[in-house]
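## retry 2 of 3
previous attempt timed out at serialization; input unchanged, resubmitting
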Amino acid sequence: MKKILIINGHPDKESFNFGLSNAYKKGANASNAEVKEIIIRELDFNPNLEFGYRKRMELEPDLVDAQEKIRWSEHIVIVFPVWWGGFPAIMKGFFDRTFLAPFSYKKRENSLWWDKMLGGRSARVICTLDQPRWSYGLLFGKPSHHSIKRSILHFTGIKPVRITSIGPLKDSTREWRNKWIEKIEQMGSHLK
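## retry succeeded, writing output
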């Protein structure tokens, strides 16, 4: 039985992103996967690294629980909207506070290299856009894709990482959204 962790980074529980998360979960459950969730908007934590990396902040119980779920997982699904080329602030704060050393990586003494502590896991990133997918790449270079795939997931050992971009969401029809819900449910049923 595959262990799937779904992390939802949208701050609005009425959003299309929550529909996508639920669709993936429904498909994964139909495939007898074990599924756990982290809904970032529901966590009680300070998203700011108040002292940068100079001084460690104590992790709140919800972040300790999030780290335990990440350790438990074999496949991580991250769902979020792309805002200003990046993530919602609460999601960025979640990564800043949760993916710290030595949990997700460990610096090597007298070296530029590090040990990746979250290896053995794969990931699927599902993000929504208010612009066509092609323009996000061609005009802007997909900054959120590079950030989450290379700077967070690959940096900590999570590979492979596959990205599904859905857009343009703005002015989309109900039929168009329903087709994406079906596609994401199918993706969940195949545990991809």
